[in-house]
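Cross-check.
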Amino acid sequence: MENLIKYDNVVVISDLHVADPDIDPAVKKRGLDDFDRDEHFARLLGKVIPDAGWPATLIINGDFIDFIQILPGLGRHSVGDRYGVTQNDSRLKLGRAIEGHPVVFDAMAKFLQEKGQILILPGNHDIDLHWPLVFEDLRKRLGNVPDPMLRFVKEAVINEQRVYIEHGNQYSYDNRFDSWLNPISLAPDERERLERPWGTMFLDHVYNDFKDLYPFSNKVYPHWKLAWIALRSFKDDKNVSPRAIARLILFFSRKGKAFLWEHMLGEKDKDKAVPIEAVWKRLGPVDEQRYSEISAEISSLLRETNDDAPLVETVPVKLSVMLGRNDDQGMTNKQIELLKSGEVDIVAFGHTHTAIDGNKRPPFGTADRRRYFNTGSWVPNIPIGDLEKPKWEDLETKPGITEISYLVLKLKPQPEAWLEPLRTDRI
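Predicted model, tokenized:
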């Protein structure tokens, strides 16, 4: 079987989250877009990679384009929770990203024109690339370069030449797709739509609203930490409407979001329903009047949606899909499994936004060739430790950190890899 990777010189990146800047000159607001490293991306493709060894293959390992945060209103429909957007919706979203970031797509087109190869794997934020017309729109923008020089890797994994590369979202419950290799199905409205996991539904229904009001909130990752901070911070904040808090609480209780409840409340039984009262108990003392106001808004929202079902529903969760209690643990389990298989020397994931240099702490010792890497993210991140309990105002003043890394792979005579920082003080 022919290898996907054409060249021995390889660079792997992930989690750029290119979206739609939609800059409003009146308020200098960037919409929901967090990617502002266009020139650094162009420098990586135009100088850094060629100087390191040419010709070369660039692998974008998921979440290249953040479709979820482009025209987010398209994800709010009444078709059903598990159904996302249509192909036409995704094409509109891609068009906004292309229009908003010409430097990025010009750099990719030039890289391809000069005989470089680009392989794009899906992540949970750019599953839209599975739509045939969406990737053809991207191909057209990049100069109509054919396979194998420009390819969307529908299999979502590169596993060859003793190297394994995958985004990593499949190892967490809230971002896992049931039909990862073919996430398109006919919805009740007789239109083909993308599958929508819990994480995407959270972004569509709740998170994007908060980010629009509080742009700094996207720097908190993973997003379940943001939900907990919001609940704890806003419960007594008179500046935040009871309706906003009601929507946040109601989303989780009505959608049966067992995974987030596990993180928030420490519940280990994924099949156990968690009553709303338990949330208040976990949040600590709550002003009685505030509690009454929020409870009234919850009831109002239920009436508006003609939903008189119990506030708490139980959603069965197959424990087999929970390889770990969070994304990090799930991917750690998978990478150990791969490295122990005897068929893989190098494993590279993305998704968690946390870079990992496998040469610093090799899992089997420095004398062993096997290594695991994570390429981190290109967007700002506010690091929050497991024991930290910041409030909303703390986040507003806490600076986001952008540390861009890229993985260099040399495949011959045998694979070796190292993580390099991309200097952001140079253009």
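The first strand starts at residue 9 and ends at 13. The chain is about 35% helix and 15% strand. Passed to J.P. for a second look.
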